[in-house]
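Thread amino acids onto this structure.
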């Protein structure tokens, strides 16, 4: 007999909640006293969550989730509509095409792939902003990928715990 825990919609609220928390972290303001350069150390929370769920559940989280979460981030950050959506779709494509390999890597090896993937995300965002004339190149721009790769093991372990705890499948 099938139970509620076995239903196909099991865990959708957990996935949605993790994206919601990531979006809150993405728009949280830095303290007034913090130097501007410290803002470059803010990790790409939404992309980290997106990569995790694509690796863990590629049949449930993919290009459509990447596109819609990217549009939400565009609205939240007030950026060009579709800017983050395009970057997230590229990240989702890379992650979904590598997910079987990524599952076999250790968490620290995965963080190197996360570094490259989030670096690609940052470069796509920079490219779109530079075409629109909104930004100039700054070497600090890629520090986000370093910080995201550094935090990946902890994000991975926390999201894996949530997935197992709430039987998300």
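Threaded sequence (169 positions):
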């Amino acid at each position: 007999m099938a139970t509620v825990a076995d239903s196909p919609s099991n865990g959708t609220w957990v996935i949605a909640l993790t994206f919601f928390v990531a979006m809150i972290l993405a728009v949280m303001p830095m303290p007034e006293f913090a130097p501007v350069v410290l803002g470059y150390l803010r990790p790409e929370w939404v992309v980290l969550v997106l990569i995790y769920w694509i690796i863990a559940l590629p049949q449930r989280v993919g290009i459509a989730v990447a596109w819609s979460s990217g549009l939400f981030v565009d609205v939240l950050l007030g950026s060009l509509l579709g800017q983050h959506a395009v970057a997230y779709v590229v990240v989702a494509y890379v992650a979904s095409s590598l997910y079987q390999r990524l599952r076999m890597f250790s968490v620290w090896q995965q963080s190197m792939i996360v570094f490259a993937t989030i670096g690609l995300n940052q470069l796509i965002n920079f490219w779109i902003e530079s075409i629109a004339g909104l930004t100039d190149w700054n070497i600090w721009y890629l520090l986000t990928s370093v910080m995201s790769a550094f935090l990946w093991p902890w994000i991975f372990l926390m999201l894996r715990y949530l997935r197992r705890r709430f039987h998300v499948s």
